[in-house]
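the two lines:
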Amino acid sequence: MNAALSVADLVVSYQRRPVLWNVNVDIAAGRLVGIVGPNGAGKSTLIKAIMGLLPPVAGRILVFDEPIDQQRHLLGYVPQRGSVDWDFPTNALDVVLMGRYGKIPLFRRPTRQHRAFAEECLAKLGMFAYAKRQISQLSGGQQQRVFLARALAQEAEIYLMDEPFAGVDAATEQAIIVLLRELKEKGKTIIVVHHDLQSVQNYFDDVMLLNQRIVAYGPTTEVFTEQRIHETYGGRLNLLAAVGEELAR
Amino acid sequence: MNIFFDANVQYVLAGCMLFGLASGVLGCFAFLRRRALLGDAIAHAALPGVCLAYLVTQNKHPAVFIVGAAVTGLAGSFAVNGISRWSRIKEDAAIGIVLSVFFGFGIMLLTYIQHQPFGNQSGLDKFLFGQAASLVGKDVQVFAILTFILLVGVVFFYKEFKVIAFDRTFAEVIGIPIGWMDAALTLLIVLVVTTGLQAVGVVLMAAMLITPAAAARQWTQRLATMLLLAGLFGALAGAAGAIASTLAPRMPTGPWIVIAVTAFFAVSIAFAPQRGMLARWWRHRQQSMRVNLENILRTLYRLREEEGDAAFSLDQIRRFRHLSVRQMLHFLGMLKRQGLVEPQAQPDRWRLTALGVTRAAELVRRHRLWEVYLSRYLHLDSHHVHADAEEMEHIITPEIEAELEHLLAHPRRDPHDQPIPVGSGGPR
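prediction for all of em together
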């Protein structure tokens, strides 16, 4: 087994209502993977579970063959842009610097080297000029790039990104694509929750079609077919949904 | 001013300022995490602890009260967290429940104590609204130690508190022990609340956690500066309360402190640069003035297109722009001072200067480019695009203009078949 990420028999539920049923997937190192599926399919839930943020009801998650607790430092995370309050009193560089916090011991302050590294990460996303800009004054695309720079500052092996392309301008989209390809060339594994079916073919090596369970997973050229997409998006699994609602009571 | 030479007054002043400093700094984190009301619950929950500590020990040393208050304060915060985590009741409701039941129990104990033979001298009712004048040397010693612990705690945990306040999920991903950090923050809030018991009392404590932070936020975009400012506002409010309490010792101090800190808040929210209400009103006014001026310039340009280089009357302009005569004259006067229009010999007739024509052409150009874009890409009917373009042209930057022009392949005419003026080729 040489998977970067191995998920076996994963079941996750919110308030006893199952959101993910029996997810089994091995993701090889160095792949650029897109996760697509309708709203409520459990895409964000899956990446949160992978990072150990949600305790699974059942199943096992291994990162480079080890349980997640010892492997946290290998995971980089780009949350949805809307998940934080951008009116927080801080600037772009400080947010990127937070990506280094995991590598600084408790009670220690970031050093000048950490700052320089954070600046480099910002520069990679074309945001060097905005380092001192208050984050609420950045455009949506720029905020997204700050989040990506922060993940870059984590120096992770596996990157998990939750809809990084949502609502960004063309320049940002381009910057993200370049970054993803660059990371892939360095052998990093990247898992991206994606909402735009049009661009899946162009962006991703592999695709995971998800709707509470994995409908299909594999190379995009093979898996991303009309029929499979229809199976993923077409209608709810009524029996599954009914049982879920029963359990939630 | 000789009250300040009195040792007791100095104690009162020092005690209140230390507490204000600590509560201001710590309140920032509670404020930014939207947990400000948790401090209120903890404060109210401290009252039964004070009473119980007195009943058990019959001792009035400040350390005794502080231990009692800390115990029930912590119990209150655990109760809030427990209820919101293990039931479907939301945190705001949990805070309401815990706050009132602990406070009610505290009042019962307080009444019981006051009906005891020894109760009349206990003076525990000062913990309701605070009575800073009763502070003495040993209180201030305890305060100083607590404030020191609090500030050291904030300095140590600064990085962790900051990332948790901004993005809790991310903090968890990078391995910050958020459970421990939450416990640490709660403990620090409990400590600051117990420090403030004698100064503001339990009822008004929330104001000292929230208001200095809210005021400080107005002035700065940096967290570190915000902490310093909130500490400063808190300390100054504490000083104001102490002085008021010294001059009128029978009055509770809490209300004075709250009024003082709210004064800082009021000034901040009204006058702070950028975030203040006045600054925002001014920006809005500037913007609407600019829009009006630009619209008048454009109207003059259009009239000029139709009728040649002539002077136009107020009424001709007003047919396109719904402004009163008075407003119109005001704006024309401003344009004149900018050298863009000039009044003619005939009364109320105005024409564009050469500079005015150049400026107006740029505006018309943006407007028409935008109209082309809307009709071409959004497939809007040419009758509808004018109003939308009207809004947009004022906020189009030179970069967007260049991109528009490139995208549209340098169109010559707008959807109404009017010519698009050629650009000057750069920002003005």
